[in-house]
Specification:
heterotrimer; A alpha+beta (256); B mainly alpha (225); C alpha+beta (641); A: Fumarate Reductase Iron-sulfur Protein, Chain B, domain 2; two-stranded antiparallel sheet; 7 strands; B: 3 helical TM bundles of succinate and fumarate reductases; 9 helices
Chain lengths: 256, 225, 641
């Protein structure tokens, strides 16, 4: 296959970027998209040019490190991660435009690499259950209906890649945040901190500068793990019920 | 009160305002349509004029009507706030290429559709509502009571070709706005349940098609009669 | 120096409890005066960092990825073993211990393995409490499955994403401590050296991968939780970023390397499709329950899967069923892998490259119906189709073995401490629990056992002994010296400006390792490899081309540094494989076979752990032997005929 690649090049966070065009003459349809970029980079390095920087790690669709906005869609034309996309999804002679995720909360680090640490900060705000190591009861002590466990698992499969933000016209992180809120809202283990969790994670999401959800459903359509927007509705419920009913308890000192 | 301020300054709180006001406006549309359909009654405008008089004088309706204006205003102002936040969330550089394959076009263009609807509301308020409340109106007598003859005013406008065309066009905008807005309001409120999602979708889409269609049918029928 | 494994005396089942009691404790009020560095945020690293922070220690955690959640533990599919015996099928701590020792082909320590089996039970409790959505039965109880040929159902799982869910659980615990201010997290930061002063680990040198800044971090103890080194083969199921640099740098600073030649090769991976191949993808071993492995009896060059259906039954060689009538396609991983290599070496391999065998489901589909096969393997079939473009419902799959896990790693004692006091190694980075071969669903167990339930106890003993005021600041000359050494190494790499990319060297190294130190190894082959690696190393340092500079995000520079360390490690693996002239577990020496051609273990000569000591640049490493004593299990030879 012959391909023309229009790739966003940007030397650093504070520098201006622009598209650069590359042509490739021998692309195998069996290559993954990232392997195609590897081949390009190898040829660039041999010519003494700087290779295209992009994030990637596991290359089996689970670590969430790879990104790339390919021909107007996050992770390209299939509902999968870029590392699982193969060149047979493209046609001979095609022009492929490759851009980084675009969001104020995901600043470009270099070329196609963006900084997604905003996601980590949202998780830190409340994406956990407070249980110290060793303090857990027997695993079978609390029953969890299979349906609930399955639904929690559906939400928990989020890989934190940020495709939802990239796909959303508002660069909203609602799908990502709601997946974690849902997982814990469904499970009995998540109940004690349920209200505070929704409040804190939403507040952090807003502070990071993500947009609001306008229910376009683009995130769900592009999510490589098929996370559903029912999670967003659940987070809305969790958040409103928390805001309207949650209150602070004045605690007396128990120091004796 | 801090929680209240927090709530309504959060993106979710703002969306909550959009959903609640939106749902109220949907309700208002239904009531308004019921009134308008009386225009088609073949009684020379009698029932429409009686209905209009009631709507513009009943104290309870007056309160609801003020609320209605407030809701429209809130819906618009909050929409502007959200849109500006959403625009800035994309960051300094936008995409060079966006396929738009993953969402319905109505959902991506609620701002434009909403603006069209707003323009329509302003025009329509000026021509009918303001005229009725503040302008010089002809009157008619039914059973010894004098009523303002809004029917003639409507009839006059609905015989102007370009006006009918504008009306129909704007009703299409309302329809597309509702096509996304109806179910979206439920989603924002968190009213999403696998058992009822289908029902909400169907009712929402039916409403978005039928209500604007009936609204638009009135001037068209009056124009051709 | 003599190796002291510090395995406590006494009956096997009491060793850990007794040891825990004998370990010194750090006063609760003093814990906040200690600092601990944790490198790597996979299962072992994240769980250790979180648990230590919960106890009150100040932790600095480091990962080279953009987020701690990306660590490659996330890719583990199958499950995690625990001796809960929820299924009432005869499991017990002792049975898990026994199976692990036997599965490791009697090259692991009894004491460590028994402890692993003991704490396995608590791991499940901990993960469930964290909100890990394990599979459940309809009644709400946890579900289990039998995995990797185990006779009992002791594997807990979360669909095919168990590693992901366990890692996200540990990540959430880590996040909680970051939010509490007890863990300081450094992402996109790579550890490049350990600083040892007065014989104790005092800190590390790192490079900020975004700015290129070289920085020093000091602490009372350093934990390396940096995973395995399967990427020495270039192609493996490891993530692209997985590397040996942290462990190798520690090795050069005095930490012995244990059993480096013990690597695990997984038989059911998607084969290489061309020279562009960057990594290999594993498919669950469960496929061999219903799939039949075959190649044509007579070599057919470039045989495509779509043409395979036309090959008549009589011309097919179901070689596993033929050679191992009782186990058939379900022989252990190493046996299945070696036999696939043998038929490919005979020229009977299939596919465009000739380096693959068929895994055929047509009989199973005919017997059980497509629906049942789909319910069992649907997601795997979809994944296969996505990667290869072939539909396994219509044509046979093609598979080939790939490097999957490394049992070897930094030598540690019972406290997980390396031969450098204050320097610990956890998870796949150490050598400790799997012997010569790891059982399925045991890697996750070991990573979490080390992080949640071993290190929080054992580190206290060391810290209490040295005292909180025994700490050296980063202004110490040794830190300056180490920083300078790193800077000059980077400048040296950047100044070569040769003609080959780091990836090209990595591929060549991988080729040598796979050819001579892969599934089967022989003395002449290993000697050839040794010479080739030496030449490759020389060429690398004169002919690698790295673009860009040192003070920016420079992925070529990152790769080159890692490849340089892999080349050195490769040489050591070859030495270790040469020394171990027996076949055991994943290590098959052609000189050591039974008359039937099966692996022959030599317990009289080789029942020891090889621990290699770095002696200096271009010096041969010296071998130390830690003899293995088996007091509870009887050593037997495997047979699958």
């Amino acid at each position: 296959m012959k391909l023309t690649l229009k790739i966003w090049r940007q030397k650093g966070a504070n520098e201006n970027g622009g598209f650069k065009t590359y042509t490739m003459d021998h692309v195998s349809p069996d290559m993954s998209f990232l392997e195609m970029l590897d081949v390009l980079n190898d040829s660039l390095v041999l010519k003494g040019e700087e290779p295209v920087h992009f994030d990637h790690d596991c290359r089996e669709g689970i670590c969430g490190m790879c990104s790339l906005y390919i021909n107007g869609r996050p992770h390209g034309p299939l509902q999968t991660t870029t590392c699982q996309l193969h060149m047979r999804s493209f046609t001979d002679g095609q022009t492929i435009t490759i851009e980084p995720w675009r969001a104020a909360a995901f600043p470009v680090v270099r070329d196609l690499v963006v900084d997604r640490s905003a996601f980590d900060r949202i998780q830190r705000a409340g994406g956990f259950i407070s249980v110290n190591t060793g303090a857990a009861p027997d695993a079978n002590e609390i029953l969890v209906p299979k349906k609930v466990a399955d639904e929690a698992m559906d939400a928990a499969t989020c890989i934190g890649c940020g495709a939802c933000v990239a796909a959303c016209k508002n660069a909203s992180a609602m799908l990502f945040v709601s997946a974690k809120v849902s997982q814990y809202a469904l499970l009995p283990q998540g109940q004690p901190e349920r209200k505070e969790r929704a409040e804190r994670m939403v507040a952090q999401m807003d502070a990071e500068g993500f947009g609001a959800c306008t229910n376009t459903g683009a995130c769900e359509a592009e999510c490589p793990k098929g996370i559903k927007i029912t999670n967003i509705a659940r987070m809305n419920r969790e958040y409103f019920s928390s805001m309207f009913t949650n209150y602070q308890v004045e605690v007396g000192s128990d120091a004796g | 009160m801090k929680w209240f301020l927090d709530l309504f300054s959060s993106t979710l709180g703002r969306k909550l305002m959009m959903a609640l006001t939106g749902l109220f406006l949907i309700l208002f549309l239904a009531v308004h349509l019921a009134g308008n359909l009386q225009l088609l009654k073949d009684d020379g405008g009698r029932s429409f004029n009686i209905y209009a008089e009631f709507m513009s004088t009943n104290p309870l309706i007056q309160i609801v009507s003020k609320g209605n204006f407030a809701f429209i205003l809130i819906h618009v102002i909050w929409a502007i706030m959200l849109t500006s936040k959403n625009k800035s969330a994309r960051g300094p550089v936008g995409y060079a290429e966006a396929s738009g394959k993953s969402s319905h076009w109505t959902s991506r263009n609620m701002g434009i559709l909403g603006t069209l609807v707003l323009v329509f509301i302003v025009v329509h308020l000026k021509d009918f509502w303001a005229q009725m409340h503040f302008g010089a109106m002809p009157t008619v007598d039914y059973d010894g009571t004098s009523y303002r003859d809004i029917y003639s005013l409507v009839n006059e406008w609905f015989n102007v070709g370009w006006y009918v065309a504008l009306y129909v066009f704007c009703m299409a905008a309302v329809g597309f706005h509702l096509y996304h807005g109806f179910a979206s309001a439920f989603q924002t409120l968190g009213l999403n349940h696998l058992k009822y999602n289908g029902l909400i979708q169907v009712v929402g889409r039916a409403f978005a098609i039928i209500v604007p269609l009936l609204f638009a049918a009135i001037p068209v029928l009056m124009f051709f009669n | 120096m003599t190796l002291d494994s510090k395995i406590p005396d006494g009956p096997i089942s009491e060793k850990w409890s007794k040891h825990k009691f004998n370990l010194k404790l750090v006063n609760p009020a003093n814990k906040r005066k200690y600092e601990v560095i944790v490198v790597g945020t996979g299962l072992a690293g994240a769980s250790a960092a979180a648990s230590l922070a919960e106890l009150g220690y100040n932790v600095k955690a480091f990962c080279f990825q953009d987020s701690p959640r990306r660590a490659h533990s996330i890719a583990a599919q199958g499950g995690i073993n625990a001796a809960k015996n929820y299924q009432n099928d005869g499991d017990s701590i002792y049975r898990l211990f026994y199976d692990t020792i036997k599965g490791g082909d009697y090259r692991a320590r009894e004491g460590n393995v028994h402890r692993l089996a003991e704490v396995s039970v608590s791991i499940i409790d901990q993960c469930v409490a964290q909100g890990v959505p394990f599979a459940r039965e309809y009644g709400g109880l946890l579900a289990n499955r039998s995995f990797g040929g185990a006779q009992v159902s002791r594997t807990f799982y979360a669909r095919g994403q168990t590693g992901q869910q366990l890692l996200l659980g540990a990540y959430s615990a880590l996040n909680r401590q970051i939010a509490n201010g007890k863990v300081q997290m450094f992402t996109r930061t790579e550890m490049l050296d350990v600083v040892v002063v007065d014989g104790k680990a005092r800190g590390i040198i790192t490079r900020n991968l975004v700015t290129g800044k070289i920085e020093s971090h000091s602490a009372h103890a350093v934990l390396l939780c940096t995973g395995g080194y399967g990427n020495v083969f270039y192609l493996s199921t490891n993530a692209k970023g997985s590397n040996v640099t942290a462990a190798w740098r520690a090795h050069r600073k005095g930490a012995f390397f244990g059993n480096p030649c013990f690597t695990q090769i997984h038989p059911t991976c998607i084969p290489v499709s061309g020279s562009h191949q960057s990594k290999l993808t594993l498919m669950s071993e469960s496929l061999r329950n219903d799939g039949r492995v075959w190649v044509p009896k007579i070599a057919k060059k470039g045989l495509k899967a779509s043409d395979a259906v036309n090959i008549p039954e009589a011309e097919r060689d179901y070689f596993l069923e033929r050679k191992y009538p009782s186990f058939g396609n379900l022989v252990p991983r190493d046996v299945a892998s070696r036999n696939a290599k043998t038929v490919c070496d005979e020229g009977r391999g299939v596919g465009a490259t000739g380096v693959a065998v068929f895994l055929d489901f047509s009989d199973a589909i005919r017997r059980d119906g497509k629906a049942l096969i789909e319910s069992k393997y649907g997601n795997l079939f979809d994944m296969y189709k996505q990667i290869t473009g072939d539909d396994p419902y219509q044509v046979p799959m093609m598979i080939y073995p790939a490097v999957h896990y490394t049992m070897g790693g930094l030598w540690v004692d019972y406290n997980l401490m390396t031969t450098v006091p204050g320097l610990y190694a956890l998870g796949e980075a150490n050598f400790s629990d799997h012997g010569a071969n790891r059982l399925g669903a045991s890697a996750l167990m070991q990573g979490l056992a080390d992080g949640y339930f071993v290190i929080p106890y054992t580190i206290g003993d060391y810290l209490a002994n040295i005292g909180w005021n025994d700490k050296i600041g980063t202004d110490h000359p040794e830190f300056r010296k180490a920083e300078e050494a790193i800077r000059s190494r980077i400048q040296k790499l950047l100044s070569i400006r040769g003609k080959k990319t780091a990836d090209q060297f990595h591929r060549e190294l991988g080729h040598i390792m796979w050819e001579y130190c892969g599934m089967s190894r022989s003395e002449p082959g290993l000697k050839t490899a040794k010479a080739k690696i030496k030449a490759l190393r020389e060429e690398f340092w004169t002919n690698v081309n790295i673009t860009g500079g040192s003070d920016e995000l420079n992925m070529e520079l990152e790769k080159a540094g890692r490849v340089a360390d892999f080349i050195e490690l490769g040489a050591l693996m070859v030495d270790d494989a040469l020394n171990r002239a027996e076949s055991c577990g994943g290590h098959f020496r052609e000189e050591s076979q039974t008359p039937e051609g099966e692996a022959l273990r030599k317990d009289d000569e080789y029942a020891y752990v090889s621990a290699w000591e770095f002696k200096g640049e271009d010096q041969e490493e010296s071998l130390h032997k830690e003899p293995l004593r088996f007091e509870n299990v009887k050593l037997t030879q495997r047979s699958y005929k």
